[in-house]
Amino acid sequence: MTQTPLLRIAVPCPLRQAFDYWAPSSATPEQCAPGVRVRVPFGRRELIGICIACPAEPDIDPKKIKPALAILDDQPILNTPLLNLLTWTSQYYHHPIGETLCEALPSALRQGKPSDPLADSVITLTDKGTQALADNSLKRAKQQHTALERLSKETRVLSTDLKRLEITPVTRRALEKKELIATHTETHQAWHYTPSQIGHTLNDEQHHAVTAIREANGFRAFLCAGVTGSGKTEVYYQAMEPILASGKAVLLLVPEIALTPQTLNRLAERFHVPVVATHSGLSDTERYQAWLKALYNQAAIIVGTRSAVFTPCPNLGMIVIDESHDTAFKQTSGLRYHARDLAIKRAHSSNIPIILGTATPTLESLYNAERGHYTLLTLTKRAGNSQPPKIICLPQHRDFQQTSGLSPSIVEAINACLAQKKQVLLFLNRRGYAPLFICHHCGTICKCSHCDTNMTYHREKNRLVCHQCHRMQTPPSHCSHCEQANHIPYGLGTEQLESACCEQFPHARICRIDRDTTKNTTQLKEQLNRIHDHDADILIGTQMLAKGHHIKALTLVVIINADQGFFCSDFRAIERTGQLIMQVAGRCGRDKEPGNVIIQTALPDFPPLKQLVNEGYLTFARQLLKEREDASLPPASAFAIVGAQARSATDAEHALQHLRQWLKQHNDIPATLLGPMPALCQKINDTHRFQLGILTSNKTQREHLLLRIDSYLLHHKNSRVRFLLDVDAQALL
Q1: 3-state SS string over 380-444?
Q2: DSSP reduced 3-state for 673
Q3: Is the dihedral of CA 397, 400, 404, 410 positive or negative?
Q4: Residue 484: phi, psi to the nearest 5?
Q5: Beta carbons within 10 angstroms of residue 691's beta carbon
Q6: 385 contacts 200 by C-beta, under 8 angstroms
Q7: In this structure, is the dihedral angle defined by the CA atoms of residues 398, 402, 408 and 410, taken in order, positive or negative?
Q8: Measured distance CA(432)–CA(430) in Å, rounded
Q9: Is 447 helix (H, G, I), strand (E, B) or coil?
Q10: Biggest alpha carbon distance in the chain?
């Protein structure tokens, strides 16, 4: 009699272990394999977990093992390399294995939808449609005419490509009704790469970078550190060509959803291969379809944000991370992973090259490059005929208009730019009308009653908004402290800056981009199209505009209150502010016209700022790296944070104090313990937050220490306190 196979299942629950189940009697031997989804009874519920092993013997009494209800896949949807990566991720970040595996799956697969390959719905122009385009007979139906033009330029259009081509379902139905387009279904066919006829002549630095990447044999990490506008994208594309030509796929990670539309359009123009996108801005169905296309090798290029690092690519040949310095690659809740680090781990396990592209590399990346772990490729010149922008620091205390945030010198520079029909970017990393709403009589500031933060005044809504818990309230008519009716907004936000520009430049077309004006991807795309079509003269924005955007007509950037980020208790504050300044400055002068950058600052003689402006980012970063090494701070040491959250501040702080005391008594691993200390914003949504920082000389020591902390937390449970662990924390809580 054949023994029923045993399945070890990781289920989506906060427990660190996996659970043994007998395979269902209906399961085939092919189905009983690591990487398949399994529906199992779990307490009073039914859950869908992932098989991670098929052990010969159970860990518990066989009589206590329950049978699984069903195996949902005919073959593994998580192959061995990806399953190994996720298992390593769970161990490295000290996160439950079941929740870690769920992070890799789109919600449709977590809910039990089938994992069969998708048939392709291919859309083609009919002879009638081709004739209508040639005759220009749809000139009155502009959307339909534009749709036919876009379809005619594509070699093969799938129904999933219509969103990228901005062809709405209404337009599609109208064209089908007129028999101008036809849709037919094709079974899956392997994609083939056709050499692109588009390309740019490389300068010496770009040519050296492309050659080095193409000559990589197996795993190699390249840090492509190029100034903004130096042609890093062209380096990526030319490095990708031989990978695609060999029939292998490329995974391209970008930090923000806002960067995916332009990236998809560039790739579609350049490479005639299937390209899919995956990010949280898509619908569940779209993410499900993209995931399956990647799984069955129906996608040659996968573009996505941080979660795309878990996308299955059975034939992966290269990974590219654009804007690799960006903090958006670090997840700050749940599984607190860093997509850059996991991508490097995945490339190493798959024995393939990986490119980390950035104009402002992190100190961690520079540290690894200096020690030979990464190969440093520098691009010091802008591509083509464009020149680096001229940067000047404008002392705020000498030449500043408090009422509008724009000094006379800045107003003069903006007017000169507008007179030349060029675009201006005013960068202010603070949304709303004013960050403070204050009693003019006694100085009392309106604060959120649920968070440890000030309320921001939004004049368009006439509301005070907490930017932590998002609660809103009507501005008070009288002060709660002195009963006087004399509140005023204080400080400068993007909404107030927009209002000031409307008065100062009445004939200019103004476009403001922040979270208030772009609440979804459609609004963001519309605003970006306005900018790129030069339908806006003055651009006002937060860091949403700081990276990756190529705006040809932009020749002046004004960075307002540039130095506010330098003075924060987080030890990475100077690095992050320097990166942001250089990224914003890099948006201008990217075409033929030279660019100018004005940095408005209260401290023009601040040494890091002077070094950044006069000597460039790499010199600035290397100086910071030396200071970090002298202070034994990351990346010269291994860092982690143990956080505690509770309704009572005393409970949260005492829980970490007890942990610290226990570590002093039971730990022989050399470590520096920082705190317990309040989080930068101690209370959010009525929850108090404290943190205990951990510094060790290396990651091995840290891992041993974190395992001891795991054991402590398991045996000292506190129902009033929720603990979290952030390995390689990129910011204080």
Answers
A1: CCCCCCCCCCEEEEEECCCCCCCCCCCCHHHHHHHHHHHHCCCEEEEECCCCCCECEEEECCCCC
A2: strand
A3: negative
A4: -80, 145
A5: 24
A6: no
A7: positive
A8: 7
A9: strand
A10: 90
Q: Give, as one character, the DSSP assignment of residue 445.
A: B
Q: Return d(Cα 45, Cα 660) in angstroms, integer.
A: 38
Geometric angle at alpha carbon 85, from 82 and 89, rounded to 5° = 140
Tally of residues, the chain: 733
DSSP state letters, 489-514: EES--HHHHHHHHHHH-TTS-EEEES
Measure the CA–CA gap between 651 and 202, rounded to whole angstroms: 60
Backbone angles phi, psi at 360, to 5 degrees: -135, 75
Residues 6+ apart with CB under 8 A from 372: none
pLDDT classification of 371: cutoffs 50, 70, 90: very high
What is the mean predicted confidence (pLDDT) over 272-296?
A: 89
Compute CA distances 158 → 173, 182, 291, 293, 659, whole Å: 15, 11, 15, 12, 56
Confidence of residue 2 (pLDDT cuts 50, 70, 90): low
Q: How many CB atoms lie within 10 A of CB 567?
A: 11
Name the one residue in this structure whose structure tokens are 């869908």.
48
Paired tokens of 515:
């979270």
- Six-digit token pair at 718? 């506190």
pLDDT at 405 over 80: no
- SS3 of 578, please? helix
Give the pair of three-digit tokens for residue 482: 């002195």
Q: Residue 614: which region, alpha, beta or left (left: phi > 0; alpha: psi -120 to 50)?
A: alpha
- What distance in Å separates the CA atoms of residue 187 and residue 190, rounded to the nearest whole number? 10
Residue of 101, 357, 157 lying closest to 252 (CA atoms): 357
Rounded Cα gap, residues 686 and 666, in angstroms: 34
Interval 84-136: pLDDT, tens:
999 999 999 999 999 999 999 999 999 999 988 877 778 888 888 888 888 78
Q: Note whether 315 and 190 are within 8 A (CB).
A: no
- 190 CB burial (10 A radius; 0-12, 13-18, 19+): exposed
Distance CA 457, CA 472 (A): 10
**To the nearest 10°, the Cα dihedral for 536, 542, 544, 547?**
90
Outline where 114-271 has alpha helix (H): 127-135, 142-152, 169-177, 204-214, 232-245, 260-270
Assigned token pair, 104: 């890799």
Rounded Cα distance, 515 and 535, in Å = 20
Q: Is 638 exposed, middle or buried (0-12, 13-18, 19+ CB in 10 A)?
A: buried
Handedness of CA 480, 481, 486, 490 (dihedral sign): negative
What pLDDT is attached to residue 401? 43
